[in-house]
Amino acid sequence: MQQVWPGSSYPLGATYDGNGTNFALFSEAAERVELCLFDEDGTETCFELVDVDAFVWHAYLPNIQPGQRYGYRVHGPYDPANGQRFNPSKLLLDPYAKAVEGQIEWGQPVFSYEFGDPDSFNDEDSAAHMMKGVVINPFFDWTGDRRPKTPYAESFIYEAHVRGLTQLHPDVPEELRGTYAGIAHPAVIDHLRKLGITAIELMPVHQFVNDSTLEEKGLSNYWGYNTIAFLAPQNTYSSTGDHGQQVQEFKAMVKALHAAGIEVILDVVYNHTA
Predict the structure, then answer these.
(1) DSSP letter, residue 247
(2) What radius of gyration do the chain's Cα atoms show?
(3) What sequence ranges are listed for the domain Glycosyl hydrolase family 13 catalytic (predicted)?
(4) Architecture of domain 152-266
(5) Which of 154, 168, 248, 255 is buried most, with the most CB atoms less than 10 Å from its CB?
């Protein structure tokens, strides 16, 4: 039987320490919070978080390993007129998730209200249609890595899109095109060095959402300006998987660029969120 210990209110998110995982979620108005873990077959097991400090609900679960998928069900008042839409039938993504698995499947179940009546209450379960947070392995071999620290006056910044930069490059293996590993490929790094750049500024690489209006037209959000998890690398840019592998691949990309003397800058826009 899974044990649940009090854990810590800091840091927020899911933090693996080598033995288990600490979960911490901020909510000032919540009345109850459930941490929900998902098996590979989608089986859900929930644990109530009973320890709260400064509106942070937290618990430590021994033996919970990297790759574990999770989400939250938060109980509280449903008062749309005052901006409160607590609905435990809707699985919530951890805003501090460091990796995300899957995508949102748009439809009535992911909305807290009935279509056409925004003040109503919908109790269809959304878990099967929601992306999930993933516990990551925080450990990575940064041996030999250092920031280039190029002076601003000497900087030559090249703005690029992970997919656009690598998707059609003939010297990048097809399975790596459009991915973090594609940018880390020697052919791409050699191209960047020949340009003489000192830094690459990546267009949004945080986990983002495809709007339903785009999907209905058979389109997708190419640019990525619709972030839903600012601490999680976009999982579709990973060549190795979305159960935390995207984090390791992203770090490997940064290390490879640093080794070539290239700094990495991220395009972060907080007023373009999902």
Answers:
(1) H
(2) 20
(3) 118-274
(4) Alpha-Beta Barrel (3.20)
(5) 248
